Amino acid sequence: MERIGTTKGKILGVDFGDTRTGLAVSDPSRLLASGIGTVSPGGIEKTADAVAEVAREQGVVALVVGLPVNMDGSEGARAERCRKFGRMLEERTGLPVCMFDERMSTMNAARYLNETNTRGKKRKGVIDTLSAQIILQNCLDRLKYQSI
Q: pTM higher than 0.90, yes or no?
């Protein structure tokens, strides 16, 4: 967190997935996260390339990648794959990448979509973006409180 807390500017939030990867971006003041869609190029290498391109287009200064941590705090194979993805993004962008605990983000996104009665194909297309937005907003909130 300290690596991205000292820089100023927009941050890209990433919810890495094998099929779809959700993306969100902060405003320059880092108050709000907004979902900006998904990328689905297929494979970890192509996904890293696609996310790096979005990072350039958005003019971000750092990235936050959701880290799937088990409820007991341990990390499994999925977490290692996300860490590998994070390292690939650092190499491709030259920007700091923070791994951020994403526990409950997909569950919170699903709860929100249930409450708004979002179903079917629309739900599939939105849940990854919303998860990225939740991950990034949680990170922004933590950064805000760390600087107080």
A: no
